[in-house]
Design a protein that fits this description.
single chain; about 575 residues; mainly alpha; about 70% helix; flat
Length: about 575
Amino acid sequence: MLEKLFTIDSSEEVEQALSSGRKLLEGKFYDRAMVEFRKALQLDQEIAMPVILDIYSQSSGDPAALVSLGTNLLSYDQNNVELINILANAYRKQESYEQAKKLYKRCLEVDPRNEFATYNLAATIAKTDYEDNNAVSAVKPFEDLTDFKLPELELAPEALQEIYEASKPELEAGEAEGTVDASGPSFVDSILSDEPAEAPEAAAPEEEASATPVEPGKIDLQRLQQEVEERASEPERIPTYLLNMAIYCMHERDYDTARALFEGLLKNDSHNVDLRCFLLCAIAEQGHPDKARELLSKLLQAQPTHRYGLVNYGILLRRQGKSSQARVIFFQLARLLEHSQGDYSLDRFLSLAQEELQKGNTKKAAEMLTPLVDELADALLVLKLSQLHLDNKAYEDALQALRRAIRLAPRLPEVIKARHQFHQVLAEEAENAISKDDLSRAAALLEQAISVKKDKVSLKKLIVLHTKDENENRVAELKKTLSEVETKERSRQIAEKVKEAEAHIAAGDPVRALKFYEDAINIEPRTELYKQMLAAAEQLGRPELAEKLTNWFHEQREEWNRKQHENEEPPEDN
């Protein structure tokens, strides 16, 4: 009786330890949380582990600390698939993708049918941040696709059906149903027959080609062209009609006619990646899936963000039983479609964003364009986006867009001007932060400023700020950068002086040339400048000048070395 009164129920101790561990974990006291969890596990692992897993899976914080905590927990149950998966997710947050992949594979070794690990592994290979339920739901819609993904029809299906029916060949009495005239095989035909191809790009079937023979009784392409020309209100609308007819034929399983139409459209628009993709879909449906997959793969190597290419490549992979590879492709696609708000056509989506800009809906336009910044190819549009962010003081987004513009067109005058403007705005903001004693914000702003334009003033201010916060490594990096900037600036100034000196020597005026060499040496006493100065002096026919110039140069060099030593910069031996 007495023993019962003075003995604490172990389940109560477990609950106390778990409650304490939860609070410590929420407070980001990871080591102390692990002590409490360990206590609970030692008391009753069967009760404690599910609760700890639930707590751990919902926690957020320092990824490294969460990885350490998960590793400790795993020592109590090394084959716990749920824990291994959660730990792998923590590694992904830490961007330790290889370690995450190893753990997901370990999950699948224990439980080959584990859905979360299966999808998380593919998401990790694709370097996306989808996980668990979000990962499954992100790609399931694509895995359910059986037909190739094509654009929605712009024209009414009834109108297209009329054209299709009117384009069937008329047969004379006793004439067998035949095929469309073909003047020769297309470029894609030469690929499929494994004959040497004349075109330079195997992934781009863009050589001129006549219509391919179709199955008996299908379509007379000449009649179809005539029907389209009669019905299109304007000549510019003819390609739209033909594209819609090609898509309609794909829906109707008339792949021969679809292929012929896509090839015809490519003759006039040979670099259209959408048309190349759709043509390869038709080729796959004609019974050449391996060749179509090979060419789609090459297309995606050149255009890795092409959404139609990705979805249809994934569908082809699934048809051929390569579900794991397809899943990786679908994760890449899911991320890209998030950026374009579900639109497979980037050109169409960008047109909508441009319309918003023209209407003055800058906030809406910025929301549409920002996720796509790394796909944008128009430097001026990217600069416009950067300016929108700069006006709204969204400096990180502005910097990302500006960097993209610099990569696209570094010498474009508008880009150069934008770099200076961005730097000036952030330098002014940093000054305001310094005046308010917000030194960490000032340092962050100046770091962004020097990322697009490294100037001495900003670098020196950053050195002071990071010296105050005792960031010795960054101070050393900044001093090295400052030295490089100063050296580059001196070199530019010296080059200007030397150019003037050489011009005066060529004009027969060595006296004037000596003045410019003197200016150059005053900037930095380099040995090659001294030698050039002596050569100029020799032209005057006064040998006594050599000794005077030598003595003067050595004085300049000693003064330079003294100043370098005072600034704790090693003298440069040029």
